[in-house]
Amino acid sequence: MGIYDFHCLRPDKSLFDNFLYKRVETKIVLLHVKIECKQGFIMLSFNALKKNLKKDYSGFKVVKVAIMADSASQFIKDALKAYGYEVQLNFDIYEAEYSQIDLQVFDPSSELYEFAPDYIIINRCTEKLLKEYNKKERLAQGHYAEDVVGLTRQYFETLGSRLRAKVIVNTYPEINDSVFGNFAGKVTSSFIYQLRKANLGLMGLCQQHKDAFICDLALLQAELGHRFVFDPKMYVNADMVYSLDFFPYIAKNVTDIILSISGTFKKCLILDLDNTTWGGIIGDDGIEGIQVGYLGIGKVFTELQSWAKQLKQRGIILAVCSKNTEEIAQEPFISHPDMVLRLDDIAVFVANWETKVDNIRHIQSILNIGFDSMVFIDDNPFEREMVKAGIPDITVPELPEDPAEYMQYLRSLNLFETASVTEEDGQRTRQYKEEAQRNSLMKSFTDESSFLENLLMVSAPKPIDQFNIPRVAQLSQRSNQFNLRTIRYTEEDIKLICEAPNYYTLTLSLKDRFGDHGLIGAIILKKLDDSSLFIDTWIMSCRVLKRGMENFTLNAIVELASFYNFERIVGEYIPTKKNEIVKNHYSDLGFKNVDGQWVLDVAGYEKKLTFINNQG
Amino acid sequence: MDANQILSDVQVVFRDVLDNDDIVLTEGTTALDIDEWDSLSHIQLVSALEKHFKIKFTTTEISSWKGIGELTKTIATKIG
């Protein structure tokens, strides 16, 4: 097949056996407007996606985005705007004139700064990279990557000094300039060596700049292929370096990043067992009969388990939901030599004969996170449909029929985008398991006070410091429920707040006889005037609800306010879709409603009852 | 596929890509007759026509068309 044939609806036949090919073809006929990329992941075609542009975006959250590119970016703009509809975001987009990145960034009076975006997308293409590289002398070619990274650093520093925006830059998709052949890797000044070095350099740079993020187009191209990503005809006729149907992928990738930065991302992976976590049916085949390990099809399940384990180690909570007898279902986790996942890895293990909808609701009630932050993986289409119908917010990937395709498909979905990683993340599963122990202790007490007393809780309130800034930023970005105003702060923001003279901060940790919750709450207080202190931020992890932490925290706030001679504390509740649980927070704590704001007088304050021992 | 069939297929593609069901194409239609037919939508039309007829146009062909007549003629030659 010719180089252009990838743009037809029909995928390269050699990639498929006949059966699969037919299946894929059927799907195309049925869906018509969607294109098929190799092994099953379905993305809207550009033509189908752009129909969203005529739809009604009112009521969606507005996000201001600036797009600057060194190739024609009209379709990036259209695709992003249209993709926003899929996730209920109304992107308000400023598109810089063609090839104006330097001008917009370095001129303080540019339209970019006037627009004041929340996010800046800098899209630079490999074709322009190559063009500039080709103009240089051999010597200069040898340090071209440093020049590219250096210029990007200047972008970040300049933008950071003038705006509070997050900046998203792309890695360069690789193209072979075919000058040195495979030998290019041995030549420092070769284009391919410099391109890869630039990509590594950009990643390193973004590690240093908290407000900078990578949109990994190189990785996207690795998955989709250069022939899908690049359209020579578009390039020659319109100076567009991407094929039409690649734009939806760019839009999705950018949107994934924006969503995760603004607090929408997955926190939990729920696994079915039979034919999902291992091959075969444990109840029928027995522990010797199930397929896992590096023999035959077992490899598939081992790799899926390894993926789940890696996710767990970076903070994704694992749960099991299976129609099985619990004892039988747990046996492989305990004694099968080839299982990667062990009982310790699973925060909530549910195996019974109830419906999966009920069981997932049960898991949700223990974990106390939104359904929209959960992913459920099950090989059975019937179960998947039941769950999707019963719990619309949960993500349920359409696993391919052949387990051999599971991993390639799951990886292509980019389910677990994240905007931050902290040391504490890896502890999360342990914390949820401890929570289960607390729950069983609670059942042995008839009244709440004796239970709380028995937990032997201690906390040490202290200001935000350089060590806990990442965790506080993460709480600020993640907490949806116990969050009074839902104002999101990044690490950079919080650093500035800590340095500002008119702010006071508190962090709250919690330990008890079963374990350490770590840092679970943060307070940011802003001085309004000499007598009033405003609670700018009150966030708490929902892991520690119903521990009396609110009372303890208020005691700490009043103590601080009193120390600095403030007369009153002012609170505000900004309702969102998710923070209903703190609707009555301030009235419950004795604040008085004064013209829509909640006010507490420091002088007459009586310390709230708490079972948490202050070790601050 | 006869000339009428090609013209009618091209019309379907135009209506879909330009999102306008009122478009009626004849052999004599040019870009001047259709508001939405600009350089940006031209690229999308080319891509959609290629998909629809499972053919590929060359860059020279794309820039040489004066109107629908020449376009349908190119398609007729390609699909044989």
Helix and strand content put the structural class of chain A at alpha/beta
CATH class of the largest domain in chain A: Alpha Beta
Query: Could you name the CATH homologous superfamily of chain B?
Result: ACP-like
What's the pLDDT, averaged over the residues of chain A? Answer: 89
Characterization of the model:
The complex is a heterodimer of chains A (616) and B (80). Chain A has 616 residues and is α/β, with parallel strands linked by helices. Chain A contains 25 helices and 19 strands. In chain A, helix 8 (144-162) runs parallel beside helix 9 (191-208) and helix 14 (282-289) runs parallel beside helix 16. With 80 residues, chain B is mainly α. Chain B is 61% helix and 0% strand. Chain B has helices spanning 3-18, 39-53, 59-64, 68-79. In chain B, helix 1 crosses helix 2 (39-53) and helix 1 (3-18) crosses helix 4 (68-79). The model of chain B has no long low-confidence stretch (mean pLDDT 91). Classes of the chains: A alpha/beta (616), B mainly alpha (80). The A-B interface holds A 2, 4-5, 7-10, 46-47, 51, 54, 74-75, 231, 233-234, 236-238, 240, 243-245 and B 16-17, 19, 39-40, 43-44, 46-48, 50-51, 54, 56-57, 59, 62-63.
